[in-house]
Prior knowledge:
It is built from 14 helices and 19 strands. The strands form 5 sheets. Strands 6-3-2-7-12-19-18 form a 7-stranded mixed β-sheet. Strands 1, 8, 9, 10 and 11 form a 5-stranded antiparallel β-sheet that branches. Strands 15-14-16 form a 3-stranded antiparallel β-sheet. Helices cover 37% and strands 25% of the residues. The chain is an alpha/beta fold. It starts with a helix and ends with a strand. The longest helix has 17 residues, at 345-361. Helix 4 (89-96) links the parallel strand 2 (78-83) and strand 3 (105-110). The radius of gyration is 22 Å and the shape is globular. Helix 1 packs antiparallel against helix 2 (20-29), helix 3 crosses helix 4 and helix 13 packs antiparallel against helix 14. S-adenosylmethionine (SAM) binds at residues 35, 40-41, 49, 51-52, 83-86, 110-113, 116, 173-175, 178-179.
Amino acid sequence: MTAPAERLRAIVTRQGPVPWSVLVEVALYGEGGFYAAGGGAGRHRDFLTSPEMGTLFGAVLARAIDATWEACGRPDPWVVVEAGAGPGTLAAAVLAAAPACAPALRYVAVEVSPALRSAAAGRLALEDPAQVLGPRVAGASGEAPAPRTGVGPLVATVADLPAGSEAGVVFANELLDNLPFDVYARADGTWQEVRVRTDDDAFVEVLVPAPPEVAARLAALAPDAPDGARVPWQARAVAWLRQALALVECGRVVVVDYGRTTAELADVGPAAWMRTYRRGGPGLGPLIRIGEQDVTADVAIDQLAAVRPPTRVRDQAAWLDAHGLAVLTAEAERRWQEGAASGGLSAVAARSRVHEARALSDRSGLGGFTVCEWDVAL
Length: 378
Ligand SMILES: C[S@@+](CC[C@H](N)C(=O)[O-])C[C@H]1O[C@@H](n2cnc3c(N)ncnc32)[C@H](O)[C@@H]1O
């Protein structure tokens, strides 16, 4: 048994059957858990995400950040919070794209895994978070303290979303699907909670009565779900969104993930909405190899909408298009066409950028991800 599995067994022994969110927390973020041990996104890690395909996704995000900065009247400082920043790949790409807001930019990469924060430290020039989010220096003749301006870009990594309400953009790519979720099942005409207990050396599921308020919400969100249907209940993602919205003074919260409605999740079933990954491919069942693989659930957009309905929902292909993907790839398209016959280095680099753009926009893959945006004071 893995060390996280032993820890889960000890919790079950003390507390009885535990919610799925406890299993996911221990498996991913507890000591020796999948992310805590440094697993995750990357070419030489466990799976590929849009930022890990190359630098293009970050270049488009840099343009989106600039557009929001302009819409907010070019504030300085301009705080961008990237949540679930992994090893810092997206942060590095945004900074490399040299956004116009750079002199005002304070980029805060939030990553819960100490191993991944230290990987990010190897590729980003980091400053003390207190300096990046402050400091406010007193005015010459005793006026109110004011933040320093024109000193960006300043970059920091932290473990949690910062407090306060001074951010311009909060961005999260494939974070919410990784926040611990609970599981509910339809049985005997009612919604029941699925919990996890031990059976000798194995972990098995058991149904317990659902809290009435959750059962009522699920009945409203998926009224036609038949017996046997299962859905994730994403209270942690909802809490994260509430915190992220409270952080933004003027700007937007942008969430990119594989999203569906709760009714769609009930329809497709857990084999489609819950997935495991390890070492570049699909993993095993989520109740085995605990801690050795990623466990992830599609995000129920309508559960998030209970906090505040998103201002805009579109797929990643449309979001990239709206923020200038074509402009960023036109030059590469031209270089590739001109140099294809010669096969020179410049043509090869151009070809890989064109391929990256196609992969990011492919609606049967990454391009089909859902982008939800919540505008704040815009
Ligand atoms: C699927 S990975 C995505 C990484 C990166 N955003 C990307 O797209 O390549 C999810 C990341 O979110 C991190 N994470 C999970 N819960 C978190 C939390 N509450 N705060 C910050 N990071 C978190 C994980 O450790 C992991 O690095």
